């Protein structure tokens, strides 16, 4: 009832005459729609505390453990994804929705998810932190399996598994263009705003520089009019690439993650490649090392004094590297195998069984805001670190298995005081279930079982909506 008063600023059962009889019959004080739009775990804890049977209520020590967990005040919503869509292969935060859901006057943000079954799902989240308000499947973009997506102007560009790039209008999802770049899988699509260009990286190592101000009129034969240049011939496999530099200048660098631990760096000036060099994570070079993830910190203005930085992850391994882009040197390292999730009880974690280097490999990375680096691992952990020093801020494990996506729902350059973050992973682990034996159910009782008989909770993908505006509880 104390939590109820904190949330509502009202006394429980105000104006109710037969309070005792109401409680004995299972009645509880009502919540308005606005009052239910608080952080998810606060509502869950309140409901647990007023369980009808005293044995079903958490103890004082459990209350302290739950309320002091780093994610307690940050999680706003949990959404299970339809299993028929297949695994999530890519994600794209869309511009602020121009057409909010029916009956809503709030600003909203969209998250487009490319699924393994060849479809694109769209989630709409309230900008006020009220959770997801819409989940729908978009009309087919005529792609096989979407593997990369990014917002380009008023459109969302989607790359697929057979080398095609499709443009959909973000406002109504109508098709704008479709173009066949090659036969390999599209790994990544990056916009170079200062140049009016877009870079498309393919799995065979090809890197194409295309125009964003002149869309193709046909699905092929766009060389010169749409395709400006082919930066890389495809001698080695390409896994990822990022642009390094200000959005306000005509110069930038492309850092391309390749095999053998190599990063190829292309310098582009006025739409032309002026130089190329290769840096490596190891000396001497080690075979069978793959640079799977790269993220960069975009400068907010052209006259920013901050040196550009890049963060990389090499598979197999557990280490995230922080590079200074100007000097091509590694400044800091973070070994994810040395970090243990903090919001766990003795019954919910087994360090000897699970915390091995193979379970601490990195599956996703993102720069959120101006100070924090977010890292997802194969064990379902989310690691938050200071991006400059790589000092861990906190670690928690909201998923059973790998964290596939970490995305900021608004544009990274926006000056929001409370940005929203979406994570996608397999098997949701409720904070309540980690400390109690009577936590609220997170899946329906009739949910299908997986091959191990452990239910849809473990095998399904979940999208979690977080608020990053408040400081995370430190380790």
TrEMBL record:
Q: Which residues form the LRRK2 beta-propeller domain?
A: 317-430
Check the record and name the SUPFAM superfamilies matching this protein: Protein kinase-like (PK-like), WD40 repeat-like
Q: Where is the signal peptide?
A: none
In terms of InterPro entries, this protein maps to:
Beta-prop_LRRK2 (IPR056602), Kinase-like_dom_sf (IPR011009), WD40_repeat_dom_sf (IPR036322)
Pfam families given for it?
Beta-prop_LRRK2
What name does the UniProt record give this protein? Answer: LRRK2 beta-propeller domain-containing protein
Q: Which organism is it from?
A: Ladona fulva
